[in-house]
Design goal:
single chain, Rossmann fold, Dna Ligase, domain 1, 9-stranded antiparallel beta sheet, about 35% helix, globular, ligase activity
Length: about 400
């Protein structure tokens, strides 16, 4: 192909600058579709050839017919070779665009496995991967059979929201039914799942030609649901290398992504190890880089920037070239993030040499630390959590939808 490839990126949220930069550095043309209200965010403008801004509807969604019509006009003179969704909320939009314009990449059927929590659980269970008991909310008798089979507590979850948004934990059948009735005509957009107490992990991967070529396992010290609903402090740390945990998580993620048919993408998979039986259960996955700055934590320990390598890999695949992962470092890292009472908290108290990244956002404190010793990483995260809890921490009610 003599002309440069054109990548159309979509992001409902302000994220993915590293992807945009690496995509441009690889010699591609880069277009970005994003919300009009994000126009003034500090995008990597030098790496974007053209921005397309979309006015969101009241519920935060885009009018896909308008987007298709707009792109049809653009494509009269500017062909688009690849479409990349930079956030969970964009997976369906990207799949829709690919299918409509017959652009290579993940279609709507596969895309649903990475967006719809009911589709992903059903497919995982069919593929022999352990999942907590779950049920759609379509049929009353089916829900009652689920309640009889799986004692509470239960989690009611939206099928297509990201993070811990919109999730409710319920203990009594009457409470569960009330929640279902309160959903009214929207209940089909939710599912109910057995609550399994346990340790929650995340596996951050890159797949190329249908094979997982990079996989990094970490454990939440405070699970996202607890942080969102209990006002906790978000923390995660690398899993011990070559441990039984490490091998079990990698095996589950590889089996899952193969079953779901992921060809070329970054992915972020969440797994719970149940306290009761010690087994690993699939919770959910997504075909994008993990949120909450987890990419900075993965980069600190492995030397692999998930955003950049995803862009490099997508470019190589589109050109028919071979992609090779850079050498991987094996050190331990951890991340801690909290909302703060202060707009710009004084960070000078955090001055250990292990700190490799600092968050620069108002009303937030965030740090990534790196060490050859996992114990050292945990010791620092524990100490920082105490300082943050005493002097900085603030909590906010969990929104119905994530804030931009």
């Amino acid at each position: 192909m003599t002309r440069p490839l054109t990548f159309l990126c979509i992001s409902t949220y302000f994220k993915g600058n590293d992807f945009l930069r690496a995509c441009k550095e690889a010699g591609n043309k880069v277009y970005l579709i994003t919300a009009k209200k994000l126009e003034n965010k500090p995008w990597a403008r030098e790496s974007v050839d053209e921005f397309f801004y979309v006015e969101e509807k009241e519920d935060g969604r885009y009018n896909m017919n308008e987007i298709i019509n707009g792109l049809a006009y653009v494509m009269r003179t500017r062909p688009i070779d690849r479409v990349v969704a930079l956030d969970d909320f964009d997976v369906e939009k990207a799949a829709h665009i690919r299918e409509y314009f017959r652009i290579p990449g993940m279609g709507q059927t596969t895309g649903r496995y990475f967006r719809d929590k009911l589709a992903m659980r059903t497919k995982a269970a069919e593929s022999g991967i352990l999942v907590p008991g779950f049920s759609a909310l379509f049929n009353d008798d089916e829900i009652n059979r689920f309640i009889e089979k799986y004692p509470g507590p239960w989690m009611v979850k939206p099928r297509s929201e990201a993070s811990a948004t919109g999730i409710k934990k319920l203990h009594e059948a009457s409470e569960l039914w009330q929640t279902i009735h309160d959903l009214g005509d929207k209940r089909h957009s939710y599912l109910v799942e057995q609550f399994k107490p346990g340790d929650v992990y995340h596996v951050d991967s890159i797949s190329y030609n249908g094979r997982v070529i990079f996989s990094w396992n970490s454990k939440y010290l405070a699970p996202p649901f607890d942080v969102a609903h209990g006002g906790g402090i978000f923390r995660s740390v690398t899993v011990p290398f070559d441990s039984s945990e490490d091998h079990a998580l990698e095996t589950l993620a590889v089996d899952l992504l193969k079953a779901f048919g992921l060809k070329h993408s970054a992915s972020h998979t969440e797994v719970i190890r149940c306290h009761e039986d010690g087994k690993y259960y699939f919770l959910e996955t997504s075909s994008r880089v993990g949120g909450a700055n987890l990419s900075e934590m993965v980069d600190a320990s492995s030397g692999i920037n998930l955003w950049k390598e995803w862009a490099r890999m997508e470019t190589a695949e589109a050109r028919g070239d071979n992609y090779k992962l850079p050498p991987v470092r094996k050190e331990y890292s951890g991340i801690i993030i909290s909302l703060t009472r202060q707009e710009w908290p004084d960070m000078s108290v955090f001055n250990d040499p292990e700190i490799v990244w600092r968050m620069e956002e108002p009303y937030h404190v965030g740090l990534v630390v790196r060490s050859k010793s996992r114990d050292k990483v945990i010791e620092l995260l524990d100490r920082y959590a105490d300082i943050i809890q005493r002097n900085y921490h603030a909590s906010a009610p969990v929104p119905e939808r994530p804030a931009h």
